[in-house]
């Protein structure tokens, strides 16, 4: 629907501008004063570029139609050839919408080109550099090289054999409405009807072509929608191109053609930019599908930035092209922007520094989205890496924005890339624990590490390493296979439960800093000192009972062990 709205809006705009221009031109031509006989005679002498072009165009107007006099602006060939050259060159100018502003043409007889310093004059140096006039024997004529280019230019403006239709309709005459021939009105309606038909054909053809050409990426998200949008805008582009190609056949006045051809060029530029935008979006979706297959999460952050950069480039190129079509001095504009950009860069050094820092981050990849990082003044999970700053979510869910320029110059600890997470603790037991029981308890702790499915059992330490003030300390260190912080807490909890249950099974008591008064014996009562089963049979029985059901003695999920 968006394509149709754009098409009908464009058609309505062209038609309204067309009729407005026609009425203004008719009014303008009515007010133009006619040249006197002496002025006509003087201009027939072709003493300046102005006179030569004026004679060529003046005597091909309907009110003063005299192709024989118009052809005097050409040299070489016979009279029939010169007449054909004059008519076809005017039709080229009209078809391209190149309106000659007579008051700007040089009237000096000895006019010289500023570059070659010869007696040359080119009316349209950018649009038609092949066509120029030169002075020969004190008269100005279209050059022989220009005459040789006329047939090729004529076929380019009226391609596919349509130049024959131009000759036929141009001489057909007929009734007129407001100065416009009925055949021109009929041709305009036929052209619009054919354009609508061609739009439907182009839309179908482009959908089929794009699907066939990009079949290997058909699995990307919303692929069908991307294809439909590209085909819709692409068919509009081909439609406007079709109108621009065949519009010169209608032979409207040069001023009208100038406005319409300018509208065609601007519309084609905008539509081409929209096609490029949607191709960029399709390309970005393809990159997203590729980044989803990789383990790196930084790719997911780079793709939107690449998409935005490409869209900005397309927009800038489109705007510059439109300004060029409207005859703005794009070179001077770019030079002014460059000087302003230099001043802006000097005034925004921190911004440039942050941008370079973001390039360093994307290049070196010290961390990825979701990694837990620690640095100077921040600890948290990386949420977003932008062009200016990196956003980090702390443990209390607040957001810290760190400038990328600073991020690139400080030491950042990336805990998100750890293969293992460290488990280290000192287990303090009471001083009255027998040595044999301590040794057996340590052996059990080693077995807990070896049998735990989420603990690396090739690099661990379990040693009785300290006689503290209120406990006998056993140092225990191992590495947990925990990719996330949640996994780390869960595995740490399971190890704690396993240690506590093993101590309970052996009757080992944990010590804690305190002041305790022990009364070992009271006359007539049993001793209050704890008793331990340290005979080999009792220890072996406890060992067998605990480790035969070890899987039930560790917690690997959120449910507590009920055994």
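^ Assign residues to that structure.
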């Amino acid at each position: 629907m968006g394509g149709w709205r754009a098409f009908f809006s464009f058609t309505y705009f062209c038609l309204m501008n067309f009729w407005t221009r026609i009425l203004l031109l008719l009014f303008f031509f009515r007010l133009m004063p006619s040249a006197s006989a002496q002025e006509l005679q003087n201009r027939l002498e072709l003493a300046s570029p102005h006179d030569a072009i004026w004679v060529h165009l003046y005597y091909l107007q309907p009110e003063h139609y005299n192709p024989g006099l118009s052809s005097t602006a050409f040299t070489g060939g016979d009279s029939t050839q010169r007449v054909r050259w004059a008519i076809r060159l005017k039709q080229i100018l009209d078809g391209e919408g190149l309106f000659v502003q007579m008051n700007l043409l040089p009237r000096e007889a000895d006019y010289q080109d500023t570059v070659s310093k010869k007696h040359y004059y080119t009316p349209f140096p950018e649009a038609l550099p092949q066509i120029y006039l030169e002075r020969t024997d004190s008269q100005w004529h279209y050059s022989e090289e220009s005459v040789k280019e006329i047939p090729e230019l004529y076929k380019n403006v009226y391609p596919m054999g349509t130049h024959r239709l131009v000759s036929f309709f141009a001489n057909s005459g007929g009734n007129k409405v407001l100065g416009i021939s009925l055949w021109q009105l009929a041709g305009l309606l036929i052209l619009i009807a054919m354009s609508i038909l061609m739009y439907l054909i182009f839309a179908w053809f482009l959908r089929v072509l794009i699907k066939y050409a990009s079949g290997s990426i058909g699995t990307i998200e919303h692929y069908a929608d991307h294809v439909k949008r590209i085909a819709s805008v692409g068919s509009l582009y081909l439609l406007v191109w079709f109108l621009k190609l065949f519009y010169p056949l209608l032979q409207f006045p040069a001023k009208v053609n100038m406005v319409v051809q300018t509208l065609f060029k601007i519309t084609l530029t905008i539509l081409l930019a929209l096609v490029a935008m949607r191709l960029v979006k399709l390309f970005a979706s393809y990159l997203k599908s590729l980044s989803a297959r990789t383990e790196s999460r930084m790719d997911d952050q780079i793709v939107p930035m690449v998409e935005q950069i490409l869209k900005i480039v397309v927009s800038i190129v489109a705007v510059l092209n439109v300004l060029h079509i409207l005859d703005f001095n794009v070179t001077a504009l770019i030079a002014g922007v460059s000087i302003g950009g230099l001043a802006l860069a000097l005034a925004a050094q921190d911004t440039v520094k942050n941008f370079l820092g973001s390039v360093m981050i994307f290049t070196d990849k010290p961390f990825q989205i979701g990694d837990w990082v620690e640095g100077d003044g921040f600890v948290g999970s990386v949420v977003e890496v932008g062009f200016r700053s990196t956003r980090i979510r702390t443990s209390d869910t607040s957001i810290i924005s760190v400038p990328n320029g600073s991020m690139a110059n400080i030491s950042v600890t990336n805990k998100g890339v750890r293969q293992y997470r460290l488990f280290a603790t000192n287990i303090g037991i009471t001083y009255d624990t027998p040595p044999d029981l301590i040794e057996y308890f340590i052996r059990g702790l080693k077995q807990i590490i070896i049998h735990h499915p989420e603990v690396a059992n090739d690099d661990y330490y379990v040693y009785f390493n300290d006689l503290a003030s209120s406990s006998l300390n056993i140092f225990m260190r191992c590495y947990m296979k925990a990719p996330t912080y949640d996994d780390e807490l869960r595995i740490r909890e399971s190890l704690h439960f396993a240690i506590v249950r093993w101590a309970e099974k052996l009757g080992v008591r944990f010590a804690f800093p305190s002041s305790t008064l022990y009364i070992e014996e009271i006359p007539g009562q049993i001793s209050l000192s704890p008793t331990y089963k340290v005979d080999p049979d009792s220890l072996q029985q406890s060992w067998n009972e605990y480790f035969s059901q070890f899987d039930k003695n560790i917690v690997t999920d959120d449910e507590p062990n009920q055994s």
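Confidence is low (pLDDT under 50) at residues 1-8, 10-34, 556-563.
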